UniProtKB/TrEMBL annotation:
The keyword S-adenosyl-L-methionine does not apply. The keyword Transmembrane does not apply. The gene is Lrcc6. Gene3D superfamilies: Ribonuclease Inhibitor. Keywords: Leucine-rich repeat, Repeat. This is TILB protein.
Amino acid sequence: LFFKLPSDSFKYLGWCDIEEHDVRGNQLRCPRVREAGPSEQELFFRGEEHTLKKRKQVTDTEKWQKKLQENWENCAELNLSFQDLGDLYQMENFKRILQRLIRVEKLWLMDNSLTDLSAIRLPRCRELNANKNYFTSFRQLPKIPQIQHLSLAENNIMTLSGISGFRHTPLESLILKRNPCEFQERYRQLVFSSLPNLKMLDGIPKLPEDCSPPDKRGFFRVCTIL
């Protein structure tokens, strides 16, 4: 490039805490919730405690004020993509936030190395994008009883086992592109027979041939492409 990018002037700056501001968590569409580095205990076991910075003692009052300012309970739309939140060092803070998203309706979790969120419940979530993660089963997804649009492209979901758990949800659109289950024989018929309310699969509307009853004997057979 013959010119500097807009971010060039910030390339030597580090992350810092701005202690006094009135911005609430639910006002941020793409907040950075990833915490930097391993815990103090982990650093101690690794013999790297010398890298610890002296941390300010936080009182219970300050913790409560921080919780109120985060205000995740009133967040309706949230994008937490591309933060590698599935990492061991990030999961505790990440799940703490997810458990507080009781009113979130649209949630993006793309490319976070996630493997299992089955203990999480998102009661009002209507749209979830969890593309490019490490889910291997529908049973590893969070509880999303109001889901309408679900995108799981580029995960590692092997079979359609567990997909019937969405049968009694208002799910209308499902994306499973570039998952191994996409190559099952009679893949579309199996999905639509399990989800009768589904209107669109992988960006293609429900077609007449998708309504033919699947061959149960071929449920676990995989179509091999050479």
